[in-house]
Amino acid sequence: MYKTLILIVFFLGNISVGLAQDLTFIEHEKAIPFEKVYLQTDREFYFMGDTLWFATYLVNAQSHTPIAGKCNLYVDLINAEGDFIRRELFMLDDGTCPGYLSFYDKTLEEGNYLLRAYTDYLKPFGDDLYFSKSIKLLKVKNSFGFNEEAENTTPQKIDLQFFPEGGFLLNGVINHVAFTATDENGRAIDVNGRVVDNTGKELLRFETAYKGMGRFIFIPETTNTYFVEINGTGDRFELPEIRKKGAKLMAGLPNNEFVNVVVLTPHYIADQKYSIAVLHRGEGLAILQPTSASLSKSIKISNEYLRPGINRLVLLDEKMEPVSERLVFMDFKDEINIAIKLNATALTTRDKVDLTLELPDNLASAETAKLSMVVVNENILNASGPSQNMKSYLLADSELKGNIDAPLDYFSDDDKLTSGQKLDLLMLTHGWRNYLWNTIRSGDVDFEPKAQQGISFSGMVKAPNNKKVVANTEVVFSLGAGSESYLIFGSTDLNGYYAFNNIVFHDSALVLIQGKNRRDKTNTTTVLDDPWFAAPELGRISEKKLKDFHDIPVSAFRMKYLNELALEEFYPDRNSRMLGEINILGQKKEEPEDEHFRIYGTPDYSIKVDENSYMYTNIFQFLVGRVPGVQVVGEEINIRGATSLSGGDTNPLFVLDGIPTDKDMVADIPMADVDKVEVLKGASAAIFGMRGANGVVIIFTKTGASSDYISQPIPGTVIKKIKGFAPYREFYSPQYTASNISSVIPDFRTTLYWNPKILMDQPTKSFSFFTCDNLSHYKVFLEGITSDGRICLGEADFVVDRRREN
Questions:
Q1: Residue 706 has what pLDDT?
Q2: I need a surface site. Which of 213, 502, 674, 769 has the fewest CB within 10 A?
Q3: Max alpha carbon distance in the chain (Å)?
């Protein structure tokens, strides 16, 4: 008869000062706060020309509550060779953000790709803490000759790794040994074999149970050596070294009430003392102290001392030093299941689908949920469905180092194993050495992670000879991107460095930075550091993920191939463009838009400089009598209607190729180098602030047009085109009406519907979309997180089994 033998249970929230000496280990194990990033994608297989849609969730790593505020999200697309194909920047807002990656680039090749995401806060932690997911990019091809069954070949080399429960083999007691079997490419394989001693005597037979993992039980002796022999290959592996004395933990499968653990020790000592510390995500939950009489007997740890996901049990000796560890996974199934109600489960093509989401009653009244939902053709899914969801990632994948093949599979029962048995194998084989929280203790982290919002532009201003820095001098930052334009005046520090932080703009924009010397002249050398930092290195585990992928369903190829044939028939020239009849009319040719850098809209006056104007000595002579309300006397300009705020100085602000400059610089520019002159006055000049109070005269030179890099004639100025945040794009979902439902234009959407921004702030919400022209089964997947950090999931399905009748 087993009973609980816990003498002391300490909850860390109620610890008195007198017990502090017992909490040394708990204090040492405290983890530094960090974040988790999760991306829900619309699917995992894509064809050339498709778009990958994703919804991002940024949560506190311990509580899983969404992180408030705004910060940058970096998304990398990496090919099978480890090359960075795409790097995009998105803005997270209160823990969420939608995004997309298009695969229209004809230089992309078919194969495995890694989708990786991280924030500035996570960047210094390294690749292990980043989100990563394998995706497959495919070419359209005829699938009717494909073999449904993959060829079964014997691997050339087998790698077998052993994981004794508790961390080591212990002499003279029952030992559980887990193992993993992989081929030379690191893929899980099924094997069977036997355990023998040094005389060749067979002790037991074993086989893998799930995804190349298995376990066996035996009693080792230090006087012997043990080997594993694999049937059919002749491979032989030696088991780990056996300890003669010590103590270790052994745990059973959790149930609805408790977890049974046993402290195994080969030698009973009456006054021997051990404690069991229970930790969860770097936080100590309890210290359990069994009596020495209970050693080697079952100890029940109540579920009230455990939390959802991975719990870490640590056996401590009387000096509170760790001697053995065991990970235990608790699946309380406490996620929020959101009901998805459909108006019908069998529909026709181009039929309207009405869908309603219903929150369960156990959601608190003040608790809201941020969700994302996809409706996708079942042909594009694995036979077992998606390989990952928010639950599998937040509770398992994100907390274990190493590649986990299809982590979502561990959360479902199959014919041979329950979910609990699968998860326990995962805990044994990944082991406490791969538990992420063991690697980010507060005392072991020598950096301070910081979040960042926007792009930072920094650099240095030096003397023309590059030998001396220019300290405490003015630096002008100018960026033109429509409504996201900037004009900022800053300065260098004592070491000549400048920085303009938190700059937010989308797509690409021309950036101009000008550094001046102490005499307010631009006789300087201005250096701009690359605002896009080098991509963090790809870790070993990410490299392995690139090689690990499920076979593509043949049904996906067949569907896409037939769809493409139909599209080619309807659009015979869809891969080329044919010009129609051209009528040449005698109309005046419109002047194309120039590529000059502007932070304002339409100017009040714009004058194009032609060859007839080259005779003028400078810009001042050129402007005489050309612009109404602009009076020019010598090198003095007065713009009528402007109010001087600078003590009698009526000269306007001069801007040269986007950078404010002085009158002397403008006076020295030959008219043959000027392309266009523009004038702003009154409200039009407001974007330049107080400096524009007297109006603004803008001069564009012929070498100042936009390009990726411009060799400008202005000293002390850097001009570059910089890539900003990825522009937002809406998912296209056609709305069929009586007027267009009979359209002959084919509709072959693989992803029928995608909504990355659903806020459930009321019990129900409704949505609608239309089916396409494919007859198929469809899946609805819903994922998200509540304001209190509870995972939300929902799933539904329907079939389109009939053609619409006209």
A1: 43
A2: 502
A3: 109
